[in-house]
């Protein structure tokens, strides 16, 4: 990267609108001369994507299939997942799409899905945590965990732990987590990670979950630095997805034509899964538009991110997921 392109990127990043909308990705694509995603040959690689039946996950699955990867579509609804598989086979001409049913908020379902993946595939090159939804009403799982935290923090934590040995055996491998800009305003919290009924707000709960996600990404990378598995999280920018349409209609109406397409929002995810250069040269990073970014934009979130709080977050995830901490060392 030249000093000029670094300066230009910084100028784009300061105003959020230019950075997160299609303006940012369009200009950065030219500034950094991005490799076309169609140029990657992923034949022989196995990639699992949760939330693969719509939005960013579907766009990523389609592109990865075009590149020749075996793509495991992990979705909650088996009928919808099967239908999407058929559509992707027709669109891409590749029959290397398989399916697995998973509700990341249901730990038994996560365990069953992991067992299916391990039985069906003798290698695993990339695990993508993409499933997520914003709920306006507070709900709990059968285990008593708030559903946003269960599906976006605890479930992915358990799935990673169950598939880690296969990822290590397939190294160099990658675990990628789709985050969101909402986490920039959310301090790291453990005691208040699950909001109570009295103070519950869907957007705030979602932001707390995403803050936990990006912090855990760094912690996985630190704890498994010598494992051959790289961990990365990313921000897709503001993309026009079914989730945004359903959960943030006012925002969608205001930003309108400046929103990125799902394909544009999924670009960095696909690049992190496919490229054997920068994505394998480091671990624990947070990315936007194929560049490393800080997970902090505010002093308040930086101050909240203490070693003690991180340790408590890891312990809490192990407790909620039913994972023996001694198995993750």
Q: What do these coordinates show?
A:
This protein is an alpha/beta fold and 329 residues long. Helices cover 49% and strands 12% of the residues. It contains 15 helices and 8 strands. An 8-stranded mixed sheet has the order 3-2-1-4-5-6-7-8, sandwiched between helices. Strand 1 (46-50), helix 4 (55-66) and strand 2 (70-75) form a beta-alpha-beta unit. Helix 4 (55-66) crosses helix 5, helix 7 (147-169) runs parallel beside helix 8 and helix 7 packs across helix 15. The protein is globular, with a radius of gyration of 19 Å. The protein starts with a helix and ends in an 8-residue tail after the last helix. The mean pLDDT is 93.
Can you list the strand order of the major beta sheet?
3-2-1-4-5-6-7-8
Distance between the termini: 36 Å
| Fraction in beta strands | 5-15%
Low-confidence stretches: none
Describe the structure in brief.
With 329 residues, this protein is an alpha/beta fold.
Topology:
Blueprint: H1 3-13, H2 16-20, H3 22-31, E1 46-50, H4 55-66, E2 70-75, H5 78-92, E3 97-101, H6 107-120, E4 126-129, H7 147-169, E5 173-178, H8 202-223, E6 229-234, H9 242-247, H10 249-255, H11 262-265, H12 267-274, H13 278-281, E7 285-288, E8 291-293, H14 299-304, H15 307-321
Parallel strand pairs: 1-2, 1-4, 2-3, 4-5, 5-6, 6-7
Antiparallel strand pairs: 7-8
Helix pairs in contact: 4-5, 6-7, 7-8, 7-15
Q: Key features?
A:
single chain, 329 residues, alpha/beta
């Amino acid at each position: 990267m030249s000093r000029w392109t670094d300066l230009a990127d910084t100028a784009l990043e300061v105003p959020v609108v230019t950075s997160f909308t299609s303006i940012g990705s369009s200009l950065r694509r030219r500034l950094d001369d991005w490799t076309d995603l169609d140029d990657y040959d992923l034949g022989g690689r196995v990639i699992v994507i949760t939330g693969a039946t719509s939005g960013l996950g579907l766009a990523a699955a389609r592109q990865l299939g075009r590149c020749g990867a075996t793509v495991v579509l992990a979705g909650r609804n088996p009928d919808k997942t099967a239908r999407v598989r058929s559509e992707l086979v027709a669109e891409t001409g590749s029959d290397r799409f398989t399916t697995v049913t998973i509700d990341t908020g249901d730990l038994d379902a996560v365990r069953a899905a992991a067992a299916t993946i391990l039985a069906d595939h003798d290698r695993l090159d990339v695990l993508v945590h993409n499933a997520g939804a914003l709920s306006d009403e507070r709900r709990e799982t059968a285990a008593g965990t708030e559903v946003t935290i269960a599906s976006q923090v605890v479930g992915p934590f358990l799935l990673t732990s169950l598939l880690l040995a296969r990822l290590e055996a397939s190294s160099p491998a990658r675990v990628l987590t789709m985050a969101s800009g909402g986490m920039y305003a959310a301090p790291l919290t453990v005691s208040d990670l699950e909001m109570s009924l009295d103070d519950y707000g869907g957007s705030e709960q979602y932001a707390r979950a995403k803050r936990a996600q990006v912090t855990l990404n760094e912690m996985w990378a630190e704890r498994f630095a010598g494992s051959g598995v790289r961990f990365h999280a990313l921000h897709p920018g503001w993309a026009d997805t079914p989730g945004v349409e359903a959960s943030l209609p006012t925002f969608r109406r205001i930003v309108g034509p400046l929103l990125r397409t799902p394909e544009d929002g999924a670009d960095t995810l696909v690049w992190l899964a496919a490229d054997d250069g920068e994505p394998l040269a480091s671990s624990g990073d947070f990315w936007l538009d194929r560049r490393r970014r800080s997970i902090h934009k505010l002093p308040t979130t930086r101050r909240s991110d203490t070693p003690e709080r991180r340790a408590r977050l890891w312990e809490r995830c192990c407790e909620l997921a039913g994972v023996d901490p001694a198995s993750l060392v």
